[in-house]
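Weekly puzzle thread! Below is a chain. First person to post its structure in token form gets bragging rights.
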Amino acid sequence: MSNTATVATPAQPQTTTQPAGGPFIRHSEPGKARIYDLTGIAFGSLTNQPLTAIPGYISAFRLYFKATAANTATQGIAAATSDAPFNVVSLIQVFDALGTPIYALPGFEALYLVPMFSGGFGLRDCADVRNLPSYAPIATATATVGSFTFASVIPCEFAKGIGVLGMADGSTLPKIQVQWNTQSAVMGSSGLSQVNPTIEFRVNADFYWLPANDQTAPPGLGSTRQWFLQQGYPAISSGATATVTIPRQGGWIDTLIFILRDSNSNRQDYWPTILRLKIDGIGEIETNIDEVYDDMAIAFGVGSTVGITGTGTIMAARPTGVIAFSRKTSLGRQVLGLLDTYETALSTSAGTSMTVEGAPWATGSNTPWTLNGLLGQVIPSGALIQGLVEV
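Winning reply:
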């Protein structure tokens, strides 16, 4: 009897690939990349460093700021300004590969409020970048007075895999431009005899690698989530019954943030007891201001800082003079970052009228006050992608 030959088992590959079909993120891999790290930057200067190509699609630019002072003796400053250290940036702008501005904000709004309310960075406690391990506040009375450290983000992705920017073509890349503030604007006008700190500015990236199958592209490629600060008009007087108009750009709004500042540009909680937000004359929101605060705690995890026992923290503190509303809560009452369907995004056009009414506004000092609107809006490349396209 003859023996039957044994058939050898084919060798298995060292790595496996996903079967054809399905969403982009199934065929890509999450990655991190360093772009540049600049040191010795002076207050009041301009940074316009070109970005470098990355083999994939940017989901977020990760930013790092560090001011270093080398004083020979202990000196002090009375106190940093209320927006410090985030107002170390006077204006930060991001342009897409075609040169279209998609992000143009002052430092406090860009580096503190957007990470807190956009859902594009951390959630709940970690939405406040001051709670990250990298944060160190401005030293005000030590030999290193004027030193500080913080990290922040420029989020591009507004839903999973959607809103990313292509970075593989070295000839056409996005651009980040930073105008740095003056030292006195950050640290106040008193006690500035110490050696001026210098700034380190680092830009890294969270990105998706180019898939092995180059026919697979992110959904809605070319769609962008844009952030702009709009100054409302007219100015507000103490105790006045007034309606403030917020100019519009047009797009699908997912986040509305309002900042109230006095004549010294300090943020103040001079909100009316009853707040009315109208879109094209229709009352979208008419409610008590304390309920707005409660809704912010529910949606964003931003509110009280006192624990049940009276100690500790249960959520990030609401920034003074800031209220926010989200349209990224189609699936629940909480902002869940990139997990949402955009079913309730607010459709607007350049002619849309947005007004905030107070009848009356609270009483306070340093008038007139200015109400600014920080608006997160999506500009789709075609129709707005809705539904959970990544599953």
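Puzzle host: Confirmed. Bonus trivia for everyone else. The helical segments are 24-27, 107-117, 183-187, 289-300.
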